[in-house]
Amino acid sequence: MTFKPTRRSVLQGMLAGSAAFAVMGAFPAFAQQKGGKLTVGLTYEIDTMNVYSTGFLGDAQAAVVEGLLAPDEHAKYVPVLATEVPTIENGGIVVSEDGKTMKITYKLRPDVKWHDGAPFTSADVKYTWEAVKDPAFIAESKDGSSEVESIETPDDLTVVVNYNTILPTFASTLFTFGILPKHLLEGTDLNTSSYNETPVGTGPFKVTEFVRGQYVVTERFDDYWRKADNGDQLPYLDGIIFKMIPDTNTLITQLKSGEVQLVVQTPYNQAAQVEGIDGIEMIKGPLLSWQHLDFNFKRPSLADINVRKAIASAIDRSILIKAQGGFPEAIKSPVVPVFDFYAADTPETPYDVEAAQKLLDDAGYKPGGDGIREKDGERLSYTFMVQAGRADDELAQQVIIAQLKAIGIEATADNKTGVAYREARYKGGYDLIYGRWITSADPVYSVFWGTGGANNGQSYSNPALDAAFGKFENTLDPAARKEAAAEFQKIIAEDLPTISLTTNVALIAKTKRLKNFVPNPTNMTNFINSSPWYLE
């Protein structure tokens, strides 16, 4: 598979759906072997197995819980629990006469069972919406829930979703992340439910054990609905074990020893070590992902555009790239260039130490006795957070700390892991934060920098940016979306709530025995199509 800048329009995943889930990976109809357990090394500690509550990628969750649709290896939406992707052409999407609202009809797959044997029905889809939008439920994101006005379930296999707006990104939000079992959860407190540790899904694997901070054990679901092209009952594997190993040095050690057979986020600076491990192969896969440096606007000096511009001018992306093995590429926009709505003329702040120093001088930030600048009693000294244990991020952090010191700004590492990192990220428990975002095939950028956005721990607010996001996220017209995208990219580049630094690639280390593995570039993770995997 290759990713090219002209790969697809932003609406292709919505307007050109496939009719069968089997298109997610084309595999030979022979030589498949059943049995064996696969051990996966994750670079983070899972906070919850509830796909709507987790603050991390849902790798383990994706093998257990399914949605109505999912993005395939080409970032194109295909049906999962639905029988087809709703489109205007097939009548699944109907826009109102005034062009302000829309209706989407899903036809559900028959004979799907939950892991406890209960039938999956349209009532579960409706309940999922009701549960996620409930103000009492603490979700990582409720995207797509407030835009739904009502849901009708005329029969067990039909869901009619009435939207109070036009939502071109419907496929990347609510019902794609996963469906919740009404018969088990209705009337319970979803915040404290045991579901958050041992979720019951419709996926190929079911959870048998979850030990917080250590591992998740899953085993084959024998009544899984999907079959291979040759008629084999899926999944092939007996189970998948997800080990949480935030320290990447330990992770690579276990890969070498054979305790781990798959790592989907190999650190760039350890790629050479991995490539030399007997029985392991490295796959370089595309990602809809980028690295960024964000500011906490609660700090008065960071709310000063002059300080943010100076910091942007002080960072030399070429050094960051070199420090990370040459794998990332420099960018100037949070819109990854593979998207058609990427604006190539987005302004950029060039690396220029002298310009950075002049900005700070002119704004009145003067060096103190220790060389650190200050103004009105506030020193430009900041806590700087990355996710602890991520070798790539910790290395980039040290590079940035040195580059900021050159212009009289002090940054002190204050790294966290697990739930502590997640809480700090969402609640603004930092001054500076360096990390990575990965999006869906149809991204919703307002969650990052829109006023009150679910991932906006920075306390950033810009009415002009909110308006541009609104235009981008509330029309089906590709030309209008592209124009709005150019507008919000320009605003972000000029107001700098974030500095987009580099794109990412996935360095996936896997045992050569694992077959039928295909990388997935989206935030739905590599595990959404794990049922055809087998060990040779």
What's the SSE blueprint?
Blueprint (H helix, E strand, L loop, with lengths): L11 H4 L21 E6 L16 H4 L6 E3 L5 E3 L13 E3 L6 E6 L14 H12 L14 E8 L2 E6 L10 H4 L4 H4 L19 E7 L3 E6 L18 E6 L3 H10 L4 E2 L7 H5 L4 E16 L9 H10 L2 H7 L29 H10 L3 E2 L5 E3 L2 E2 L1 E5 L5 H15 L4 E4 L4 H10 L4 E7 L7 H4 L13 H10 L5 H18 L2 E14 L2 E2 L18 E2 L1
What does this structure look like?
- The protein is of the alpha+beta class and 536 residues long.
- 24% of the residues lie in helices and 21% in strands.
- The protein contains 15 helices and 21 strands.
- Strands 11-19-12-18-16-17 form a 6-stranded mixed sheet, sandwiched between helices. Strands 1-10-9-8 form a 4-stranded mixed sheet, covered by helices on one side. The chain has a 4-stranded antiparallel sheet with strand order 4-5-7-6, with helices on one face.
- A hairpin with a 3-residue loop joins strand 8 and strand 9.
- Helix 8 packs antiparallel against helix 10 and helix 14 runs antiparallel to helix 15.
- It is globular, with a radius of gyration of 23 Å.
- It starts with 11 loop residues before the first helix and ends with a strand.
- The N terminus is likely disordered.
Low-confidence stretches: 1-23
Largest sheet, described in full? Answer: 6 strands, mixed
How many helices? The count is: 15
> In terms of quaternary structure, what is this?
single chain
Distance between the termini: 23 Å
Number of E-state strands: 21
Q: Give the helix/strand class.
A: alpha+beta
Main sheet strand line-up: 11-19-12-18-16-17
Alpha-carbon Rg, integer: 23 Å
Report helical residue fraction.
10-25%
Strand content: 15-25%
